[in-house]
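Supplementary Note 3. Input sequence used for the single-chain structure prediction.
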Amino acid sequence: MAEEGVKERTLEETPTWAVAVVCLVLLAVSILIEHIIHVIGKWLKKRNKNALYEALEKIKGELMLLGFISLLLTVFQDNISKICVSQKIGSTWHPCSTSNTKAKAKSDESLDYKTNNDRKLLEYFDPIPRRILATKGYDKCFDKGQVALVSAYGIHQLHIFIFVLALFHILQCIITLTLGRIKMRKWKTWEDETRTVEYQFYNDPERFRFARDTTFGRRHLSMWAQSPILLWIVSFFRQFFGSISRVDYMALRHGFIMAHLPPGHDAQFDFQKYISRSIEEDFKVVVGISPTIWLFTVLFLLTNTHGWYSYYWLPFLPLIVILLVGAKLQMIITKMGLRIQDRGEVIKGAPVVEPGDHLFWFNRPHLLLFTIHLVLFQNAFQLAFFAWSTYEFSITSCFHKTTADSVIRITVGVVIQTLCSVAI
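The predicted structure, written as discrete structure tokens, is reproduced below.
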């Protein structure tokens, strides 16, 4: 009975019907997912959503990368688990305190002692070494007075975490795009307003006005705009009341038309549809996971060390960054208004804003998009790590020190998701 409790059956000892059923289910699920992706791709092509189709291709690429990582983890699982390090090195940088680990080991020692001895006897008398896959197997480095670099079971848990992380990242990007498109629905009303007689009269190109008396001027050309500190403070709080107001939308629309279209095309141009296509292009960038982003994933895993208290400060890093990004975007709009006033106190027609690379950090507009991308991924990492650690180790494990820790992770994750959908 003891031998049956620890022995792992190979395929030669497994019923063929069991193998066939498992393979059939896996094939059915894989074919179904591939068919769904194919149908979505055809639907996007039919509606000329080229940017979203390319984003879908990137998702397929990420799934392929995930499958390749899974294959490597499976093939080299035994080789990695056979790499031994000294106990001194193996006892450093643990995610949980050593006292908690030893207490748990003592509580399980009485249950595992007989099983481990039986397993060693089996390995000794078994002419063919048994392959331990995704099980809490015997540590081969123990006899050498060492510990495994990463055990076979630990590699299995890491395998699951990578899958959960990729899943959360893709779902979060889709949610961000969906919330962004919902937000833009009210822009359609503003776009329709530009075709009314009242809008044409108010924005008569032959009309002279003071820049500060325009609606855009009254919003951005106040005294506080002259002070960098006050400008940061006002811009920081403005992002909580909508990233783009009606006044800003009208000014940005007019500035874009004046810069890119010939005169007389104001009424025919749909700026809201153009912005929608631009966001789809940005989504194509955000949904991908670059090598730089994967490097940050490794750094995030490294911070999960006992004594670093990363469960308190790490969730707030993406929140602080996305708030700075939102404030910076508000500042850019205000600075474009200040440039209007610098060109003269009196303007003819509607105020014309002129965006430029110099308004962005380090004169690189794409840096903002990369920052949002990184924030989205780090937020996906936090939520995925919470879900994975809860599934693998339960909600009462050392990965969740207190109830406040869990509440902080979930609350901050939802807030960041909402702010990213506004900023992108």
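The radius of gyration is 29 Å. DSSP finds 18 helices and four strands in the chain.
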